[in-house]
Design goal:
single chain, 194 residues, alpha/beta, GMP Synthetase, Chain A, domain 3, 2 domains, five-stranded mixed beta sheet, 7 helices, 31% helix, 20% strand, disordered C terminus
């Protein structure tokens, strides 16, 4: 069996999932470098199954060692083509289990949160962690520019995002939020496309 460095060289594409072109499917992106659809997976078993079918996969960076070990042991993937494994740099957040406080939620207006499908989840000093079901560098840049603070994005499941938006922002309609930190519905990023 190959060592970890050999497995990374053989299977890991140098383009992080976060930087790939979005597609209509929120759990899939397109890599121009490896010329494949790249599916976001949560386990090594999912990764090996999709790779065996010639698909690209993305897995959270902390899960790469386990996934690469499984790939190295799977006979179907020996002599596989060009690299097709991408690292997901953004952390995962489970919005069904994480309940941000009102002072965190009020960093974005309900209109902006719904339009951009984002939920702020935590603050660390002046930085804001925002969950998205489709985190992109453009979204991060737009939010940071509009808010005037450093923004970090976390990946969230699309269905959990919908539930979180309904749960957290349905009760906030009509509230002013908190002054200068709130991005109002007139913000330039509300309806921009990625």
């Amino acid at each position: 069996m190959a060592n970890r460095e050999e497995l990374e060289a053989r299977h890991l594409c140098g383009v992080p999932y976060d930087e790939l072109a979005p597609t209509a499917n929120q759990l899939e992106r397109r890599c121009d470098r490896c010329k494949r659809a790249v599916h976001l997976v949560k386990s090594a078993a999912q990764a090996t199954e999709l790779l065996a079918k010639g698909q690209g996969v993305a897995i959270q960076r902390r899960g790469l060692p386990v996934a690469l070990d499984a790939i190295g042991k799977d006979a179907r993937l020996q002599g596989a083509g060009p690299p097709a494994v991408h690292a997901l740099e953004a952390p995962w957040v489970d919005l069904d289990k994480h309940a941000p406080t009102n002072d965190i939620l009020w960093n974005l207006s309900p209109d902006v949160a719904r339009a951009r499908r984002v939920v702020p989840v935590a603050r660390d000093g002046g930085d804001l962690l925002i969950a998205s079901d489709n985190p992109t560098p453009r979204l991060q840049s737009d939010l940071a520019g509009a808010l005037g603070i450093r923004v970090h994005l976390a990946m969230a499941d699309a269905a959990a995002m919908s539930r979180a938006l309904e749960r957290h922002y349905a009760i906030h309609d009509g509230m002013s939020g908190g002054g200068g930190d709130v991005m109002d519905s007139g913000s330039s990023i509300e309806n921009s496309d990625d």
